[in-house]
Amino acid sequence: MIYQGKQRIWSDYQKDIPADGWFYVRSCIRQNFFPASEKYFLAICRDLLGHDIYETEHHTTCGGIAYHSDTIPQETAMTIVARQFALMKEAGYKNLVTSCITSFGNYTEILETWREYPELEARIRENLWKATRREFDKPEYVAHASDLVYKYRSEIAERARFRLVDKETGLPLRIVEHIGCHYSKMFPHKGIGGAEYPCVLSGMVESWGGEVVDYPERRHCCGFGFRQYLVKANRGYSVSNTHKKFESMEPYHPDAIITNCPGCPYFLDRWQYVIAEQTGKTYGRDGFGIPVFTYEELAGLVLGYDPWDLGLQLHQVAVEPLLDKIGIEYDPSAKYLGVNKEDLLKPQMPTVLKCC
Amino acid sequence: MDYFEELNKDYRFKEGFHTCINCGTCTAVCPAAEFYKYDPRKIVSIVQTRDNGKIESLLKSDTIWYCGECMSCVTRCPRKNGPGLVIMALRDLSIRLGFFTESEKGRQIYPLTKVLNGNVLNYGYCVHPATFAYKDHPESGPVFEWALDHKEQVYARLGANYRGKGPGALRKIPQEDLDELKAIYDVTGGTERLELVEKHSRAKAKEMGMTMEEYAEYTFTHCSTGHFNNE
Ligand code: SF4
Ligand code: SF4
């Protein structure tokens, strides 16, 4: 097809994502804080929509957090990744899909570095053989899990029970999107929409009925900064960056935030709690915060899955006001129950931030 | 040792260091520069002088540890530099030479190395609920304190396969796979790195009159005044 004008420029920012056949690798952070998001990524993309996504128990971390915290040499990180590629090859897959933005950035950086320095790739092959007697093929395509949800967004919209719309007014919900730095800031051409017009999340929001809110610090980092969050003494950096974003988005009154990276929703959620407890300031209505979602959680809500099956009870910012606004039913008394309605007591309530 | 030549062997440096025109674009977008006494433009500029003494001061300073490795600078530099990548090479060299124990922020490499690699080698992932203690993470909120108090039940409720067999979130990684990770560390210099950090940190702890437990706790929690722009 020959594109012209803006359409031609825009085509440079599109990615041709393969239709099917994915080797799936999990995320260190998402498993911990949003385990149900990983479950529903598979439930939606594999079980509901019928796409071929394979997971082996033998895969591991990519080492990305240890690497970006400067605790392992580059060759160690590369060889861990080479092992993931070997497992993919052994399972007969050619496309890799990862549940983490740090991983996505890490895989992309490694493949690009090998492309430029083939001698390094050869050394990593030797390392992997020496350490594990395995051999790898490079993936034909590396996607982030959100790329797949983006690709399947219309299929999700067709099956939607709810739309991202205020049930009272009929107006679209106002949603802030946060892409996560390592998605497209290092290698812009690898992310949908590049670094200038990333649309992986805005595409989902618009397909599901919502409206994307622009604000000045939209592309600013959430403040993870690896060592800047992981070390207790450095967390001033992390909360200050999140604070900067919230101060910037506040005048636009967003209803919710959708995130790409597994870390960002944790920081944007938890630092709202800390800012509220430390300064008394809250960013949502009536003492609540602005709820922050993973893209799997938002997809799950639209499809009508139970909010507590989706893991929304693990957020510190209450999601109930937003569920009420959309008209999603939920059982408040079931929020903190275990399997088979086992009583697990309830978390304490924060002092300032209003919760349910 | 010629530090510039040493840095130039690092692939991240090869990727991230070209001629810098001192435009300051990287500093303008940098989330670290916003809050810390940190200026990526100056870092690249100092490295560009190839002045061994100046680079050595940098390797021993807090400054190189302020970056968050977000790589926002990589997108914007008009000369295709990556100050964040230059920082990664500087940090790597600082650790290899044992200079990291000379600064407060550099000494944090000890608790980071222990926790993250302990998790990778024992659990197969960089972060794991088994070692994520609420007392170290009060910002995770009362909801996560509750979740950690009922780990097995909460993770089961949310469809994870906590410490279980077969695939799934938070599954127990089979021992043969953990053994392969260990072998990768052995072959690629990862194990040697852990030992090096331990050796230099031990010497520093001794100098500071601390046990290793006290040193780990102190480096993890202590923040002097003077790091932030408004101090
Ligand atoms: S943006 Fe690039 S050229 Fe400009 S000061 Fe930073 S490193 Fe130098
Ligand atoms: S990678 Fe480091 S230097 Fe570059 S913008 Fe991020 S924090 Fe600043």
Summarize the structure.
The complex is a heterodimer of chains A (356) and B (231). Chain A has 356 residues and is an alpha/beta fold.
What do you see in this structure?
The complex is a heterodimer of chains A (356) and B (231). With 356 residues, chain A is an alpha/beta fold. Chain A contains 16 helices and eight strands. In chain A, helix 3 packs across helix 15 (295-303). Chain A is globular, with a radius of gyration of 21 Å. The model of chain A has no long low-confidence stretch (mean pLDDT 94). By secondary structure, chain B is mainly α. Chain B has 15 helices and no strands. Chains A and B meet through helix 2, helix 3, helix 4, helix 5 and helix 6 of A and helix 2, helix 4, helix 7, helix 8 and helix 10 of B. The structure holds iron/sulfur cluster (SF4) (2 copies). The site of one iron/sulfur cluster has 16 residues of chain B, from helix 3, helix 4, helix 7 and helix 8.
The biggest sheet of chain B, with number of strands, parallel, antiparallel or mixed sense and barrel status, is: none
Give the terminus-to-terminus CA distance of chain A. 53 Å
Q: Structurally, how many domains make up the residues of chain B?
A: 2
Structural class of chain A: alpha/beta
- Please give the alpha-carbon distance between the first and last residues of chain B: 36 Å
Q: How large is the share of residues in beta strands of chain B?
A: under 5%
- Please report the number of helical segments of chain B: 15
Which bin fits the share of residues in helices of chain B?
55-70%
pLDDT average of chain B, as an integer? Answer: 97
How much of the polypeptide of chain A forms β-strand, as a percent range?
5-15%
Using the coordinates above, name the CATH class of the largest domain in chain A. Answer: Alpha Beta
- The residue-averaged pLDDT of chain A reads 94
What is the tally of beta strands of chain A? 8
Q: What is the count of structural domains of chain A?
A: 2
Low-confidence stretches of chain A: none
Instruction: Give the overall shape of chain B.
Output: globular
